[in-house]
Amino acid sequence: MKGRQEQRRTASEDRRTVERLVAAWLAETERHDPAAAHEARTGWERGALSEGAAQDLATWVTARITDTGFTEDEGPHVEGPVRITPADKDTVHGWLRARGHPV
Predict the structure, then answer these.
(1) Does 10 reside within a domain?
(2) Which domain holds residue 17?
(3) This protein's superkingdom (predicted)?
(4) DSSP designation for 72
């Protein structure tokens, strides 16, 4: 059973992961769809992503996993501006679910 301090540390680590990946997602979205990025950034800053933005983030983080656990011989190597592990994806998906978004 986790103690209160460990739960706070984990929540804090999860929040940093979400913030890091949301920043990368917003930057990429800005390059491809400035209007969608503006809407998503506004929601993020208010603390409430729209359902569409939440789904886009969930899909983006899944598609951008860069740390696949494969070796070079096993492939694939995924290039990306940030390192995203399967655990990072799970963290973002859990964060979205905790805010009522179906993922």
Answers:
(1) yes
(2) 4-98
(3) Bacteria
(4) T
pTM exceeds 0.90 for this model: no
Burial (CB count within 10 angstroms: exposed 0-12, middle 13-18, buried 19+), residue 65 = middle
Print the SS3 string covering 4-33.
HHHHHHHHHHHHHHHHHHHHHHHHHHHHHC
Residue 65 within any structural domain of the chain: yes
Convert the pLDDT of each residue in 7-65 to its tens digit.
Answer: 566 888 999 999 999 999 999 999 999 999 999 999 999 999 999 999 999 999 999 88
Residue 33: inside a domain: yes
Cβ–Cβ under 8 Å, residues 84 and 64: yes
